[in-house]
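Batch manifest, entry 17 of 40.
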Amino acid sequence: MGFGATSLKNMRKFYEAWSELEDKSASTLAEFCWNSIISSPLSRISGRLPVFFSESSYICIDKDMKSMTDFTAIDFETANECLSSVCSVGVVIVRDGQIVDSFYSLIHPEPEYYKWFCQQVHGLTEEDTEEAPVFPYVWEKIAPKIEGLPLVAHNSQFDEGCLKAAFRVYRMDYPEYEFYDTLSASRKHFGCGLPNHQLQTVAAACGYDLTRHHHALADAEACAHIAIKLL
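Output type: structure tokens
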């Protein structure tokens, strides 16, 4: 990638200022680079931060980008084609980048029937959830645990859809939970470096062995490990 005259001029100013510093430790370099790039014309104009790692590499990062250390990973399984038919939920709570709590429950689905193709995915049956609590009672236990935390899911469109649908069915006020998606994060981070971006594949790439795929708590744990690495 070539650089324009303005970019080269700014780079020369950067190196001249750096050469005048007595302390050239790694920590000083990091602070110096950060203070320099946030005041650069490109940063002010485009809202993005240019970082030069070498003459041939140029990376832009968002000003607002930061590691997500506090969040809740969540996973739903459904009994049928209706998003409201959640039949199990797994929740994993992460604080300061560490898993600190988890929760799992079967749920009596609404509508109350199972489709064969769903059973083939997660293995749950009507007998498993016949005596399970309905969604409002389960969420009553979850809500205090996740208060104030963003929610993370792998393919969050599905899990967020399930949550909103369940709230609608039971006429509950939806608190507008903030969702983040590890599937999108994986596609951005790994690109074509993985054969696919399914949960078990991405989890393995992040060093986590998912052995009980489509068990809601196991999937939430895998999602949490991915989020710790990628978000």
